[in-house]
Amino acid sequence: xxxATFNMALFYNDFQDQQIQFGYFNSAGVxxxxxxxxxxxxxxxxxxxxxxxxxxNLIFSASYAYLHTHVDELEFPALTDSVLEGANLTTVxxxxxxFAPENKLVLTATYLLPVPADIGSMRFSTTYVYTDQxxxxxxxxxxxxxxxxxxxxxxxFAWDRVLESPVDLSVFVTNVTDEEYVTYVIGLWPxxxxxxxxxxxxxxxxxxxxxxGP
Length: 214
Known about the structure:
The model has no long low-confidence stretch (mean pLDDT 89). It is built from no helices and 13 strands. By secondary structure, the chain is mostly beta strands. It is elongated, with a radius of gyration of 23 Å. The strands form three sheets. The protein has a nine-stranded antiparallel sheet, with no helix packed on it.
């Protein structure tokens, strides 16, 4: 037999007084942001996850999320005289909510090493993460406001209860392929420049944990 689990959830949300973040320059010429209850939106989708133990040593798990977001209405309040420039919106009516990828997929394969119990337990895992494109700022603000999709591969080796001690060790590599991807866009296009943030490059690391409990 192959032990397995499967979970599924469906959701639907009809939001009123949707909070929207916006950026602007105040009368001192300093850039800042604000949040206002400016409209309504509809959010619906599904989440699925599960795992299956293919052999005594090999476990495969997966999770998938589908997310549909739509701003139905946006009535932005008038800005005061203390603001030099118009608001820099993350979304407008008819667009999706910011930082809400439509599809996200995570796949993990874990191999349990067949070592004697007095050595401890060892496992090696590989994880693949796919994140769909998503909007950071409104298309009306910047043509670079949508961030492309990206895929990451992570590796991890864990050794628990090392030689029957209370010590756990692990080593890991994140973003194995050194994928270049964008995680944030500021929305400064109307001012002649655009900026943002990029994701973490390939990284190596190790962890050690001491268990004080039984």
